[in-house]
Amino acid sequence: MTATDELTRRIAALVAEELAARNGGGSSRPAPSAGRGGGRAATPAPAAIDAGRVVTVADVLDAEKSGAALRLPAGAIVTMLAREEAERLGVALVDAGGAVPAGSERGARGAGGADWAAGRPVARSTAELIDRLDRYTADVWRTEPQDVGRLRQLSRPPMGRIPGIFYACFNLFWLGEEVQTFRDKAKAGAIPTAVLDELLATLCRRHAVRLSKWFVVDVLELLGDVADFLEQRGTRSHDEYRELCEHLMLAADRLQSWVDRMLPWHTLDDRLELVP
Amino acid sequence: MARSIEIVSGNQRVVARLLDREAPNVAGKFVDAMPCESFSVHAKFAGEELIVMVPFFSEPENEIFAVEPGDIGYYPGRQTICIFYGDTEPFGEVSVFAKVTEGLDVLRAWGREILERGSIPVQMRVAA
Q1: Under an 8 A CB cutoff, do A250 and B55 touch?
Q2: CB contact under 8 A, B79 and A253
Q3: Of B37, B41, B79, the CB nearest to A249
Q4: Per-residue pLDDT in tens (0 to 9) along chain A, 276 residues
Q5: What is the distance in angstroms between the Cα of A61 and the nearest Cα belonging to chain B?
Q6: Using the beta-carbon criterion (under 8 Å), do B53 and A254 form an inter-chain contact?
Q7: A250–B79: do the CB atoms touch at under 8 Å?
Q8: Enclosing H/E stretch for B13
Q9: A80 CB-near residues (< 8 Å, 6+ apart)
Q10: Are the C-beta atoms of A64 and A91 separated by less than 8 Å?
Q11: Chain A residues with a Cβ under 8 Å from any Cβ in chain B
Q12: What distance in Å separates residue A205's CA from the closest CA in chain B?
């Protein structure tokens, strides 16, 4: 087994484990403390809580809520958004075996109206959700996303590396195209926003399942955010819905453009022949 | 006075005049998004065309199918600008919002370079 194969096997196992835990209602994250809000003041904040192998914003928020640092296991995959959120909230990310930085134990955050029930809070408004999407787009605009870095190392039997990247490229391509179809329907204004919300949420969940095969965890996180928002809150107008679609397209299409960029399109015809 | 934009890669520069009258919304959104760093890849099916993603979405306007070398269009479906530098076999209509005034030969060189390397970095900005 090559080093690349081993890395791929490890990433595949970690992501599958994390997704299975979440789909099953469980989580590799520590369970939320009892008595959220009430009674918390009497409980000393832990110095650090242990994260799962795939570290998302939800893990950072759990740590922030507990007033603790977040201890990462060896080989952890930390999403870009999680790193950004940790920096923004001042949550220390500590490598396994590393010391917790002094001062990283902070006062626990009260419930304060935030919806913590699912870990990462559901965006309270379309504007807040668009802000999350835009932060991702800005993060990956100029430098290759870490999702793409992982994709470069992905190899799955029996076909190896390039076929998976083609699939990832086209899966992302059609995500953007399909979101645009809904965006155009919202612009036409004939379909109620509640119906459009449900359709887009379903689309995001379906694409997330497919894209999970390629371990593009940052985009999976965003698709989950969009679906959660549409299912639990929803857009208030066709204009809001259209705007949300446009920003989702920009985020997903930027990742797609990076995946497209690394494919050797310009050499394919010279090097390959079709199977007779 | 007509506004112009610059597209730069390495030490080479292309200048284009914005078509503010024909495509005011796309031209306006393009200017609002400047300066911008991105990368250019090559069209796969549409002939001699460079493609650069831009960070905005705009409704189509001034849509043209039979583009000419030097036309710069916006394609909402992928939020890209399409820079036509030679023979093209159009794949669809684009919102033509700018026209190259300097550096068509540079675009041809970039096209050859991308076809050899895969992509090149580009910077875009409003011309002073």
Answers
A1: yes
A2: yes
A3: B79
A4: 555 455 555 555 666 665 555 555 433 333 333 333 333 444 555 688 888 777 888 888 888 888 888 888 876 778 777 888 888 889 998 887 666 554 433 333 322 222 323 456 899 999 999 999 999 999 999 999 999 998 999 888 899 999 999 999 999 999 999 999 999 999 999 999 999 999 999 999 999 999 998 989 899 999 999 999 999 999 999 999 999 999 999 999 999 999 999 999 989 999 999 999
A5: 29
A6: yes
A7: yes
A8: strand B12-18
A9: A136, A139, A140, A145, A146, A218
A10: yes
A11: 137, 141-142, 176-177, 180, 246-247, 249-250, 253-254, 257, 260-262, 264-266
A12: 21
Residue B15: give the domain boundaries: 4-126
| Closest alpha carbon to A150 in A222, A213, A215, A56 | A215
B1–chain A nearest CA distance, Å: 32
Domain boundaries, chain A: 3-95, 126-271
Side chain identity at A10, as an amino acid letter?
A: R
pTM over cut 0.80? no
State which amino acid sits at residue A255: L
ipTM score of the complex? 0.95
Domain with B94 in it: what CATH number?
2.40.100.20
